[in-house]
Amino acid sequence: MGATLRVYKRRIRSVTATKKITKAMEMIAASRVVKAQRQVAASTPYASELTRAVTAVATGSNTQHALTTEADSPVRAALLLITSDRGLAGGYSSNVIKAAEQLTERLKAEGKEVDVYIVGRKGVSYYSFRERKVVESWTGFTDSPTYADAKVIAAPLIEAVQKDTAEGGVDELHIVFTEFVSMMTQTALDDRLLPLSLDKAAAESAEPSKGEILPLFDFEPSAEDVLDALLPRYVESGIYNALLQAAASKHAATRRAMKSATDNAEELIKSLSRLANAARQAEITQEISEIVGGSAALADATAGSD
Fold first, then answer.
1. Do 242 and 142 form a contact (C-beta atoms < 8 A)?
2. pLDDT class for 1, splitting at 50, 70, 90?
């Protein structure tokens, strides 16, 4: 076997091994995304009902609360960025980081300071490399988040919302994550979690219907106490749903990236196989030519001796 043919054979073996790995990763991601989709479907109704409950309390009373009341002149906003702990997912993390950068610029243009909180090693690495300040970060669970993870993340954010801005608190809470639309489509978006926009909440909920005015309610012990109780649940459920959406999106992006890598490996194997066959044919042709040439030379030598 010639040197050129050996090189092609070695490359084919290497690419074939890579193809087996990417195919396995594609299958794992496909199984994980199905589970993540179920979790998103299960958590979304709970988050929607909480939003509806908060809307009912806020519109049914005159209570001023951090959950529903916008500051007259907001000066600081918290931004929670949800990325991935791992790569091999195409542009998944870079797209959501880009969305966070755009939101940061927009908030700064409005005269607000931005406190950044990050979920996922990709986001942490991005900000660390650029030596940008991060208030707090969490890693290690983005592939399969739990409600307990959401509670841990929500705790410092709720504390910041409840503080006065002079003491390091924030007026707004924004979350940037990747929404799972379908297996082929995942969209990086930003959403203002606090204060809750009552007009938006009412429009997204089945109640109240268009043109309907919610009646006033009596709350025990008070509307403020009810909102105090709902605030952590609302923030936790919103973050949990975003974590699940991001996880489903990441698995779908990984599946798509690994399928593309597997397809590329197959094409490369075909190309290398054609080149290896051509090299082998060239070797065979050369060997035949050498045999024919040697035979002719031997025949000439024999004829000369006669």
1. no
2. low
Kindly tell me the burial class for residue 125, based on how many C-beta atoms sit within 10 Å of its own C-beta (0-12, 13-18, 19 or more): middle
* Sign of the C-alpha dihedral computed for residues 232, 238, 244 and 247 taken in this order: negative
* The pair of three-digit structure tokens given for residue 9, joined into one six-digit string: 């054979």
The CB density around residue 225, as the number of other CB atoms within 10 Å, is 12
Query: Tokens for 98?
Result: 């880009």
Q: What is the 3-state secondary structure (H, E, C) of 230-265?
A: HHHHHHHHHHHHHHHHHHHHHHHHHHHHHHHHHHHH
pTM: 0.79
Length of the chain in terms of residues written = 306
| Gap between the Cα atoms of 192 and 51, Å rounded | 13
Q: State CA 254 to chain mean position distance.
A: 10
Give the C-alpha separation, 217 to 56, whole Å: 9
- Helix, strand, coil percent content, the chain, rounded in steps of 5: 65, 10, 25
- Which amino acid is located at 96 in the chain? V
Interval 4-35: pLDDT, tens: 788 888 888 998 999 999 899 888 988 888 88
Collapsing DSSP to helix, strand or coil, 78 comes out as strand
Burial of 228 (0-12, 13-18, 19+ CB in 10 A): middle
- C-beta contacts of 30-35 below 8 A and 24+ residues apart: 30/251, 30/255, 32/143, 32/144, 32/251, 33/183, 33/248, 33/251, 33/252, 33/255
